Q: What sequence folds into this?
């Protein structure tokens, strides 16, 4: 029995002690006055009576009732029922606040306020004071409290004749039965009827089970107020320990809401702060850091606004506000959605029927109380689903004297498949769940509804999931039980309690609430207490049982395991591999290993591995040989690498006993166990893992203690599922708890002792186990892993050590960067000891180990660790002596002549890097990566050679290399090796030739070697001096650290320079030079054959020894020699070809020439980055040039570089202007200058200079409109209306142009986009080359615009410059030049863009999901946008030049974008530059001579390292490639030539692209070299020389489709949509590495296929060509290359010296021309007839190319044979080209000139057979088939090999019936074929046909 009420208190209003307006509560009386022993009086009760504060009211309020909850220090809840009513305030209460409160109360009690007569109302200013009756109880019977306090108030108000003291005394002495009515004997025991002695009667029903909460209607009300979603989020918030705050104006509602939320959390108990009604004075409690559920009056809402981490539920408004910083994890799916739908069915049953056409008439909705229970039932089901099977994860650590239970959280999450679920993880870590485990984990206790549900109803719930009605039925059944628990006897519930009359509170009370007689109340209480003491104590009879465990748990959602769905086949593979290992079949095991390692990604396969290995341990097979040990360790590592630190699937737990079992003998007495090789996993350093393991093992042993020996089993099989008949540890514990009270004291003591010693022995065992896995094999090198947070201050004791070699040699590869410098044994030992001690402390304290034992353990741990370290030292020493495992032999790379190894092969793994093909991606190729091999560093390249790690790929050699000079990024990484999956140091090397080496060093490569590799690589990449690069050192002995021979000053003196010039000039003396004659390039046949007829203009000299410099002081005598050297340079030869002036002395200057070649810069005095000879206007004197040059950046003044042969317009180039340039002139022309400074004079010189350029041009006008800008084809662009007034072309708003669109189509400059620098003139996308608008502002004099505006007029010279440099320029009407400001990108933008392009093409990581797609990355790089701008501007300049205007390109410093633009313009305008010779001249002239800074942009030396790699030249080559794609017939060179230059301009293999200008090259002596100095064969030092030599041997650089039109000016499309990504960036050949070093690509030629001896079809020549591995053009060369190769092979076979391919090709072309002549079409073109329409010439033909020429994919269709050509000439054309078509066989349109049946004699000893023969005159073949309709050719006789056709004789086995004359023989160079026709005429016909075919040929 329990007391209904503990205390009765009367609290009244009292003044505040500090005299503030607020009052405060005062306890007038409390009963009993002494505290109960078992329940002290709660403090602060007066605050809770008036939570909003004690205040006087102007009117009498009705009485209020609510229940506040107070929690005491022992977490006991006290329910304070408060009934408050108002009484008139006394004058003292209103005015005087200083009198003694007690005296005032006495006065009141004696009737002092009875002065007011009962009938009259009070004065107008009357105030009312609150008074509260409080009942304090530990029981939660709200209605009883309401009735009881109401009764006391009624007696007072209505003046009933009942003593209040009696009622209060009865209330305090009333006792009611404890919960569990159904377990008592009769209804009377479970139901108590009480009366307080005022004629009242109340029935109190105690709930059946006190563990189930009582909710009445609170849950239903909560859902009505907030809605489903809000309540669910509050539910999740409370479970995951967030702060929840309820707001309402009603205190009762706050209580109910908090009560409802707590009821939903059942079976978990809320253990944090719980205050349903918080008084205003305690609002600061809300800022507590701990979670809470608190209710606050809505009046204080403002005070809650600044709480940042509190979830606020407004009950009156129905909202829940979650702050931004709070994340409430939702329930795991599908539970979230299921719960939501069931709740809506319960709350809104009409929802399902709302759409029915004929809804049922009425729906019986549940009463509020019933609905409340239904809602609770939904949540009860939810918990049962969430926690299903939780009892299987309980660890019974102790049974006696009290159960100690631990929950294996990781196993629970793992088996439910909810490891990733945030919600459940937080719930399991929370305090509520810890309480749940300690309370409900107990195996022998009373059970309730939840236990039944989670044990027996799980299967039903799973089955009902998809049937809503069945779910609803189950919910209603549960609700019935919950309702019955609260109302066990509904029939008995009859109350009779008096209530006050209506509006009784408004009536005048006869007097205030009286003071009660303490003595009388105390006497009643004492009487009852005495009576109770006499009665026997009521013992709560509990029915305790064994708690059912329920079915084993299943995953909450059956997820398909996707890629690694472990089929039985996979498990079979794992089992087979293990049995092969243990049977010693190592080759078989090795084959299966990759498949096993892949399978081990799946959970089932890992479990299978652990079980299989366990069986072998049981069979005493734990001692292995070295290879077996290696395999086992490798598989264990693979299993463990995917284990998280929690080990939720128990894999690490299953392997733990195995790693201490498997071992190998290293030497007598020294054994290495597997644990020393599997330490590199985070799971071993996680304390939670060790605790779970420890408790699991302790449970097994404790269970074994109590089981009969017969039931005992091997405790180490803990991971197996116990068999059905075996009793679980919980069953055993339950039985023991039941027997415990019956045991004798001694027996109890003995059992406790046994258990304690079991736990103690396990603790010792685990201290050993932990030292095994935490101490590294080589403790002298403590690689303390940073990521091992679990080891606490062992911030990472080095548990790393994984070996796949038989020796544990990994110890060498420790990472020294862990921040732990002091690597002494004691540190590792100390850290491990601390870690183990912390573990031991925790588990022993929890498991109740005695303090003596614990101290003993602390003494033992350091000894255990020390002993183990000593054992390991011997193991480590012996493991060093083992022979290393047999690794694949290192493949040595092929080196170039002169290339030497700097560092020999370091063993590495080459890892996949995001390019799918290499790893067998979408292309479907094999996974050639990852590959195992070695990396070599040579003086020229970084080379990886190796083989794929996947044995299924076969013995393919993988080569990836790039020149050292191309390295752009190097960073250290830590990656997993592909097979063992061990983290290893690695390197990530990216090159600008689009190669990437992502390597992991093998464990045998020490960190010192890896570091050495990096340093050497860095030294070779960034040498101190350019002369130590490979281009200079090849062929000479290489000493890596050799200092440069001479150290030069930054700027060498003019004297040094002149010395070099003189010396070099002397060398070239006496050689015949064509200087004044116009230069004609030699025809291709004679180009570059023998050294005699070849001008060796770019032969390179030896390095200059300091001693060979001949000092000379006089410059004059050398001038002539210098000139003769300079004349030979490319520029000069090109100027003479273009007729751009002569080189003559100033006296005899040919006045007729508008331009002249000026030697003013021969000593590089004016501009160091210009060539020695420059083209300037004839009229400008040399001395004026010095002054002009000052106006330009880098002194790069305008010089002519090309002249159009047709329009005679010239192209000039210069650097950008300084401020005082032309722009200065324009800007300053209106302000008169007082005196001319030198700068002004040079500006004037500059103006004169530009005027001279303009006047040097012939007046070239053409009325056809081609010359005017408005004549630009509007398909290309829009227009531009320069007026005679407006000479500065500005970037106008695109809208402004629309006004003048009739005369001006939109400007062609429209798509030159503003690039990065924000344009000041309107932000339109395009900039426009446009003049003033036609309807623009009126003229200065006010006249209307004159008609000249309508007729566009061209400027003589357009100056294209940076927009920034032309700012503020005013047009000058008199000048004949116009400024065109454009916005181009800068070098740094090119650099950034290239970096992004590199990343797009060679991603470097394999994370395809997270990284953007290739096309997106390509777009982000803006590379194609820059190509577009370059092409666009170049096409514009071509149009201007073609129209007769000259153009000066004056951008940036004149050596980057300027060079790109002028080179492209010349290439597009002049067909000569599209030949091999011409392109070479163009590059030498514009890029080398005009000083593009190759060394600076390529970061060739240490000095340039900071500037980084900027591929300006590569961008130019990409532009040329785009043009080549659009006009494949206009270029003599193949696309491979461009790639070759792209590769070698960065490779530093040749000297051509070194240094920044001719001046620097002369200074190093690179420009001139005497032929006579060559001794023997020399390595090529110039790339051009190399190209020449290679071109003689192979057509690789030649474009077979070359058929130029002489006058063709190319105008390519430049829109980004027309551009293609250059395959130079994306293609890769892993078979040999990059194909641009020709000697290396030729190392492994394909073996020729032999023909079958019977002359039939050759054996199948098919071979698999893999993407990214094979070079497709080499595997399948194009038709022409194949024929040329065949020709060469045949010539060699015949013993003739093979002819050059070029001669053969020229002969074919000549024959083609001759045959084309009689046709009447007459244009002598090459192989491809030039009347192919222009659009096909330009766009329709594509060549796929590669290092062995080109694949011809052009069909000469109707265009060729249309018109009036005779069939004879068609036949002739067919005959001559027949050889070209030998590659093409099309089954449908096969050419059959003559066909029929012949008997053919087989080869030696073969019979005669009838075959169907086809004579094909087109392909020049005789083919035979099995029968007429057979499509598969059985053999071919090539008529080219036929020598004669003669009559034959029958041989043995010939057809008998045939005439002898029907036999004939065909003799070929290989053999004689015997034929027989059916009769003599047909034989004759066959012979005639074959003869005619031969004669045609």
A:
């Amino acid at each position: 029995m329990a007391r209904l009420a503990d205390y009765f208190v009367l609290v009244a209003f009292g003044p505040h002690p500090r005299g503030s307006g607020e009052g405060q509560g005062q306890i007038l009386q409390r009963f009993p006055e002494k505290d109960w022993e078992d329940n002290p009086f709660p403090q602060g009760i007066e605050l809770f009576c008036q939570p909003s504060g004690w205040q006087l009211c102007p009117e009498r309020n009705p009485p209020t009732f609510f229940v506040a909850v107070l929690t005491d220090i022992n977490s006991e809840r006290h329910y304070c029922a408060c009934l408050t009513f108002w009484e008139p305030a006394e004058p003292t209460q209103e005015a005087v606040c200083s009198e003694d409160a007690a005296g005032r109360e006495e006065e009141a009690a004696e009737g002092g306020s009875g002065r007011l007569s009962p009938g009259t109302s009070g004065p107008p200013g009357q105030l009312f004071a609150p008074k509260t009756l409080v009942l304090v109880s530990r029981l939660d019977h709200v209605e009883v409290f309401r009735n009881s306090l109401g009764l006391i108030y009624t007696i007072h108000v209505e003046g009933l004749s009942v003593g209040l003291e009696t009622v209060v005394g009865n209330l305090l002495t009333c006792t009611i039965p404890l919960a569990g009515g159904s377990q008592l004997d009769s209804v009377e025991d479970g139901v108590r009827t009480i009366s307080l002695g005022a004629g009242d009667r109340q029935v109190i029903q105690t709930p059946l089970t006190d563990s189930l909460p009582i909710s009445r209607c609170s849950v239903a009300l909560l859902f009505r107020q907030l809605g489903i979603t809000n309540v669910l989020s509050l539910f999740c918030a409370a479970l995951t320990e967030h702060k929840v705050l309820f707001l309402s104006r009603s205190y009762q509602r706050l209580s109910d809401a908090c009560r409802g939320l707590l009821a939903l959390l059942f079976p978990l108990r809320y253990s944090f702060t719980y205050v349903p009604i918080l008084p205003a004075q305690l609002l600061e409690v809300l800022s507590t850091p701990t979670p809470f559920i608190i209710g606050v009056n809505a009046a204080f809402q403002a005070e809650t606004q600044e709480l940042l981490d509190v979830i606020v539920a407004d009950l009156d408004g129905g909202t829940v506000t979650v702050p931004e910083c709070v994340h409430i994890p939702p329930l795991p799916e599908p539970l979230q959605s299921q719960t939501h739908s069931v709740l809506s069915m319960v709350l809104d049953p009409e929802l399902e029927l709302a759409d029915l056409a004929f809804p049922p008439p009425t729906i019986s909705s549940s009463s509020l109380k019933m609905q409340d229970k239904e809602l609770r039932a939904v949540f009860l089901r939810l918990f049962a689903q969430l926690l299903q099977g939780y009892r299987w994860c309980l660890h019974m650590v102790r049974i006696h004297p009290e159960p100690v239970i631990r929950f294996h959280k990781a196993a629970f999450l793992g088996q439910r498949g909810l490891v990733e679920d945030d919600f459940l993880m937080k719930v399991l870590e929370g305090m509520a769940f810890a309480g749940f485990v300690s309370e409900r984990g107990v195996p022998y206790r009373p059970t309730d509804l939840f236990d039944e549900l989670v044990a027996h109803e799980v299967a039903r719930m799973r089955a009902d999931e998809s049937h809503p009605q069945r779910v609803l039925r189950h919910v209603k059944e549960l609700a019935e039980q919950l309702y019955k628990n609260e109302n066990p006897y509904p029939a008995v519930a009859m109350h009779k309690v008096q209530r006050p009359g209506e509006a009784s509170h408004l009536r005048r009370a006869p007097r205030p609430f009286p003071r009660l007689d303490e003595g009388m109340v105390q006497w009643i209480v004492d009487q009852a207490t005495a009576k109770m003491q006499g009665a026997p104590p009521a013992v709560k009879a509990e029915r305790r049982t064994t708690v059912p465990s329920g079915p084993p748990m299943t995953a909450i959602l059956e997820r398909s395991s996707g890629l690694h769905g472990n089929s039985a086949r996979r498990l079979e593979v794992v089992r087979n591999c293990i049995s092969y290992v243990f049977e010693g079949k190592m080759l078989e095991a090795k084959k299966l290993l990759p498949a096993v390692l892949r399978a081990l990604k799946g959970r089932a396969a890992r479990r299978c591995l652990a079980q299989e290995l366990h069986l072998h341990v049981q069979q005493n097979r734990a001692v292995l040989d070295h290879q077996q040990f290696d395999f086992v360790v490798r598989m264990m590592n693979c299993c463990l690498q995917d284990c998280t630190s929690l080990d939720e699937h128990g894999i690490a737990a299953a392997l733990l006993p195995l790693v201490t079992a498997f071992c190998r003998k290293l030497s007598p007495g020294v054994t290495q166990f597997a644990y020393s090789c599997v330490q590199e996993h985070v799971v071993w350093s996680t304390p939670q893992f060790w605790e779970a393991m420890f408790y699991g093992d302790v449970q097994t042993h404790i269970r074994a203690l109590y089981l009969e020996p017969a039931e005992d089993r091997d405790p180490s099989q803990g991971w197996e599922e116990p068999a059905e008949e075996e009793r679980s540890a919980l069953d055993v514990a339950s039985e023991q708890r039941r027997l415990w009270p019956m045991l004798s004291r001694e027996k109890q003591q003995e059992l406790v002792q046994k258990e304690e010693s079991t736990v103690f022995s396990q603790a010792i065992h685990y201290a050993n186990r932990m030292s095994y896995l935490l101490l590294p094999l080589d403790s002298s090198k403590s690689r303390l892993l940073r990521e091992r947070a679990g080891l606490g201050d062992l911030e990472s004791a080095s548990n790393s050590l994984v070996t796949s070699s038989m020796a544990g040699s990994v110890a060498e590869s420790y990472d020294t960067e862990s921040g732990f410098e002091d690597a002494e044994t004691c540190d590792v030992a100390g850290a491990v000891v601390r870690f183990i001690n912390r573990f031991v402390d925790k588990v022993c304290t929890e498991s109740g180990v005695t303090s003596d034992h614990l101290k003993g353990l602390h003494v033992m741990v350091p000894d255990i660790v020390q002993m183990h370290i000593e054992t390991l030292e011997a193991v480590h020493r012996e493991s060093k002596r083992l022979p290393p495992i047999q690794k694949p032999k290192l493949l040595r790379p092929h080196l170039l002549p002169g290339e030497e190894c700097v560092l020999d092969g370091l063993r590495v793994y080459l890892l996949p890097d995001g390019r799918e093909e290499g790893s067998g991606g979408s292309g479907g190729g094999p996974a050639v990566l990852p590959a195992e091999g070695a990396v070599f560093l040579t003086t020229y390249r970084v080379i990886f050679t190796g083989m794929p790690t996947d044995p299924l790929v076969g013995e393919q050699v993988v080569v990836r290399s790039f020149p050292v000079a191309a390295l752009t990024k190097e960073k250290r990484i830590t990656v997993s090796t592909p097979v063992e999956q061990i983290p290893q140091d690695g390197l990530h090397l990216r090159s600008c030739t689009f190669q990437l080496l992502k390597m992991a060093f093998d464990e045998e490569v020490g960190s010192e070697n890896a570091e050495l590799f990096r340093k050497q690589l860095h030294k070779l990449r960034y040498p101190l001096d350019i002369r130590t690069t490979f281009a200079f050192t090849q062929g000479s002995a290489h000493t890596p650290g050799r200092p440069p021979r001479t150290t030069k000053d930054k700027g060498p003196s003019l004297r040094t320079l002149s010395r070099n010039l003189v010396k070099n000039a002397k060398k070239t003396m006496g050689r015949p030079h064509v200087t004044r004659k116009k230069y004609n390039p030699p025809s291709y046949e004679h180009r570059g054959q023998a050294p005699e007829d070849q001008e060796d203009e770019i032969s390179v000299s030896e390095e200059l020894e300091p001693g060979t410099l001949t000092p000379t002081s006089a410059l004059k005598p050398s001038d002539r020699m210098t000139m003769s050297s300079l004349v030979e340079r490319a520029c000069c030869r090109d100027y003479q070809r273009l007729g751009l002036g002569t080189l003559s002395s100033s006296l005899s200057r040919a006045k007729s020439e508008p331009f002249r070649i000026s030697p003013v810069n021969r000593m590089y005095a004016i501009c160091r980055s210009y060539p020695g000879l420059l083209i300037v206007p004839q009229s400008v004197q040399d001395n004026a040039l010095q002054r002009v040059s000052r106006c330009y950046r880098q002194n790069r003044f305008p010089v002519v570089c090309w002249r159009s042969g047709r329009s005679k317009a010239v192209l000039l180039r210069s650097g950008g202007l300084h401020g005082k340039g032309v722009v200065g002139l324009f800007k300053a022309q209106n302000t008169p200058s007082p005196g001319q400074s030198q700068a002004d004079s040079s500006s004037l010189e500059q103006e004169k200079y530009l005027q001279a350029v303009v006047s040097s041009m012939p007046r070239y006008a053409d009325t056809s409109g081609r010359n005017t800008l408005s004549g630009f084809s509007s398909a290309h662009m829009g227009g531009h209306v320069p007026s005679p007034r407006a000479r500065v072309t500005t970037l106008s708003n695109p809208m402004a142009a629309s006004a003048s669109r009739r005369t001006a189509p939109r400007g062609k400059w429209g798509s030159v986009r503003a690039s990065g620098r924000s344009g000041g003139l309107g932000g339109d996308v395009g900039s426009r080359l446009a003049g003033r608008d036609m309807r623009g502002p009126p003229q200065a004099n006010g006249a209307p615009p004159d008609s000249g505006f309508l007729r566009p007029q061209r400027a003589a010279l357009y100056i294209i410059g940076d927009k920034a440099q032309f700012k503020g320029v005013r047009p000058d009407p008199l000048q004949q030049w116009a400024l065109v400001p454009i916005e181009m990108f800068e070098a740094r933008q090119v650099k950034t863009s290239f970096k992004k392009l590199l990343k797009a093409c060679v991603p470097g990581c394999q994370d395809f999901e997270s990284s953007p797609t290739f096309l997106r990355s390509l777009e982000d790089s803006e590379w194609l946008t820059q190509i577009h701008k370059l092409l666009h501007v170049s096409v514009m300049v071509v149009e201007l030049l073609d129209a007769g205007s000259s153009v000066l390109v004056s951008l940036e410093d004149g050596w980057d974008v300027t060079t790109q633009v002028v080179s492209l313009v010349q290439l597009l305008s002049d067909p000569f530059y599209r030949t091999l010779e011409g392109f070479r001249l163009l590059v030498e002239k514009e890029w080398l001579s005009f000083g593009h800074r190759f060394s600076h942009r390529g970061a060739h030396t240490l000095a340039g390292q900071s500037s980084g790699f900027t591929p300006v030249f590569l961008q130019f080559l990409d532009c040329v490639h785009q043009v080549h794609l659009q006009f494949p017939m206009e270029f003599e060179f193949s696309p491979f030539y461009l790639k070759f230059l792209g590769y070698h301009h960065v490779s530093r293999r040749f000297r051509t692209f070194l240094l920044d200008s001719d001046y620097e090259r002369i200074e190093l002596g690179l420009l001139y070299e005497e032929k006579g100095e060559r001794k023997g064969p020399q390595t090529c030092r110039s790339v051009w020389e190399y190209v020449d030599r290679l071109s003689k041997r192979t057509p690789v650089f030649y474009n077979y489709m070359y058929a130029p039109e002489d006058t063709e000016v190319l105008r390519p499309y430049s829109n980004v949509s027309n551009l293609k990504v250059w395959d130079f960036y994306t293609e890769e050949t892993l078979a040999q590495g990059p194909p641009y070093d020709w000697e290396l690509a030729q190392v492994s030629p394909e073996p020729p296929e032999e023909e079958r001896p019977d002359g039939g079809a050759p054996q199948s020549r098919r071979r698999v060509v893999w993407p990214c591995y094979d070079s497709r053009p080499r595997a399948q060369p194009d038709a022409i290359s194949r024929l040329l190769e065949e020709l060469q092979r045949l010539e060699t076979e015949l013993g003739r010296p093979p002819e050059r391919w070029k001669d053969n090709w020229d002969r074919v072309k000549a024959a083609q021309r001759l045959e084309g002549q009689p046709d009447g079409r007459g244009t002598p073109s090459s192989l491809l007839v030039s009347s192919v329409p222009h659009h096909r010439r330009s766009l329709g033909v594509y060549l796929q190319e590669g290092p062995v020429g080109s694949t011809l994919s052009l069909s000469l269709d109707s265009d060729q044979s249309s018109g009036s050509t005779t069939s004879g000439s068609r036949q002739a054309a067919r005959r001559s080209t027949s050889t070209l078509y030998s590659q093409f066989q099309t089954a449908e349109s096969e050419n059959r000139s003559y066909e029929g049946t012949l008997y053919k004699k087989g080869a030696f000893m073969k019979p005669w057979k009838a075959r169907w023969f086809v004579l094909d005159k087109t392909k020049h073949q005789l083919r035979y088939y099995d029968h007429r309709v057979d499509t598969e050719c059985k053999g071919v006789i090539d008529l080219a090999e036929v020598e004669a056709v003669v009559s034959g004789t029958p041989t043995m086995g010939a057809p008998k019936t045939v005439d002898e004359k029907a036999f004939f023989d065909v003799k070929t160079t290989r053999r004689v074929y015997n034929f027989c026709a059916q009769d003599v005429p047909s034989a004759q016909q066959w012979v005639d046909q074959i003869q005619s075919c031969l004669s045609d040929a």
About this structure: The CA atoms of residues 1223 and 1366 lie 6 Å apart. The two ends are 126 Å apart (CA to CA). The mean pLDDT is 76.
